[in-house]
Write a structure and sequence with these properties.
five-stranded parallel sheet, 377 residues, binds iron/sulfur cluster, alpha/beta, four-stranded parallel sheet, 17 helices
Length: 377
């Protein structure tokens, strides 16, 4: 806590709020997107929005690992888990995400499927070693923060000579999602979503560095500030974005200098490059098919690729018509625009992925804004 309290200091937050208020030009609007759900939760938890002038608006982006997983890929994981010879292993949030026909991995487990929750990808190797007659599949999801662990686990599986272990790889990359937002018709043509600058996730940049964002800053003329997840980190990043926009600049700045460099973690990058490669195209929930936005296992490690081992088929399914997750992920709608927010859909009875994860926008609204929403309604 010693190193956290300083970044939650109320007096410092008030001082930063006064600076933002003084520097934000009353004659213009500032629309800033926090890409990551971790930032969304920090913003709600500490009431950051309430400290900002009314012309500085925050838009919640798609950076929630379980929210952006396309339903057909989750369906395929459930079908894999239902095989008699398979033990499916994944992170806890993933188990509760609703798939098509109101299914989930948790419900599949209740019906007899062998589904395990783990905190680390390496735990899947222990399960595989302990159950040599079972096919143990790690259902890998997430952005660049979890990708190196998956790559390391595959290398470890080879070193240990495990023959009954494979990975269903669904990792995605952050810069491709930001580019898709900037290229979307809502931003480029229809003006439905205005994004003047981005607050970038520091845990992603601890791995990939700040350099991959330089392209957007230059090409799309949008500033990016890589920020930590404490309230003062977020507020300082907002001030940095306001200043850049006032000065007509669009460059990448690093607020989280205590953990992020321009180059990132070279060792982690080498691990990923050894085992994984970009797919030509990958489907995201809400964003559709995006070129070079997801990772697959390289042919040199094909024996650990569950998609090849089990000939996994990903079949298109319609979205639940009541759920607005796709529009929320794109920043077009807010959770409170969904008619079943807080009634049919709650964290206990999630209808969409955005209500499941600790990083989902609907879960953040439900946890921190429900009272205000009910009072206003
Ligand atoms: S409230 Fe539930 S159903 Fe509505 S958009 Fe959010 S997750 Fe989907």
């Amino acid at each position: 806590m010693r190193y956290i309290r300083g970044f939650r200091e109320g007096a410092a937050a008030a001082a930063l709020a006064r600076l933002i208020d003084a520097e934000a030009d009353r004659g213009r609007q500032y629309h800033l997107m926090e890409f990551c759900g971790g930032h969304t939760h920090a913003i709600f938890r500490y009431g950051v929005e309430d400290l900002l002038p009314s012309n500085v608006r925050l838009i919640h982006g798609p950076g929630c690992p379980v929210c952006v997983l396309a339903v057909p890929r989750l369906d395929a994981a459930i079908e894999l888990a239902q095989r008699a010879d398979v033990t499916l292993v994944s992170y806890g949030d993933m188990l509760r995400v609703p798939a098509s026909r109101r299914r989930s991995l948790l419900k599949a487990r209740a019906q007899g499927a062998d589904v395990h929750m783990v905190y680390s990808a390496l735990e899947a190797l222990d399960i595989a070693a302990a159950h040599p007659k079972r096919e143990v599949v790690f259902f890998a999801i997430g952005f660049e923060t979890t990708t190196p662990a998956t790559a390391h686990t595959i290398l470890e599986a080879r070193r240990l000579g495990l023959k009954n272990f494979s990975v269903y790889c669904n990792h995605v990359v952050t810069p491709a999602a930001i580019q898709s937002i900037l290229d979307s018709p809502e931003v480029r043509e229809w003006g439905q979503v205005r994004v003047d600058g981005f607050i970038g996730p520091s845990h992603v940049s601890a791995v990939i560095g700040s350099r991959p964002y330089e392209y957007f800053a230059q090409e799309y003329q949008r500033p990016v500030v890589i920020a930590g997840f404490e309230p003062l980190d977020v507020m300082q990043a907002i001030r940095m974005l306001v200043r850049q926009l006032n000065d007509g600049q669009a460059c990448v700045e690093n607020q989280f200098t205590r953990g992020v460099t321009r180059e990132g973690n070279r060792k982690a990058q080498r691990l990923v490059a050894e085992v994984l490669e970009l797919r030509p195209s990958f489907e995201w929930r809400g964003l559709g098919e995006l070129p070079y936005s997801g990772l697959r296992i390289k042919s040199g490690y094909a024996e650990f690729d569950a998609e090849r081992r089990f000939a996994i088929e990903v079949k298109a399914v319609p979205e639940n018509a009541a759920c607005q997750c796709p529009a929320i992920i794109r920043g077009v709608k807010k959770p409170t625009d969904c008619k079943i927010f807080g009634n049919a859909c709650t964290p206990r009875t999630p209808v969409g992925s955005c209500m499941v994860s600790a990083e989902g926008a609907c879960a953040a609204y439900y946890k921190y804004r429900r009272g205000a929403v009910q009072a206003a309604g």
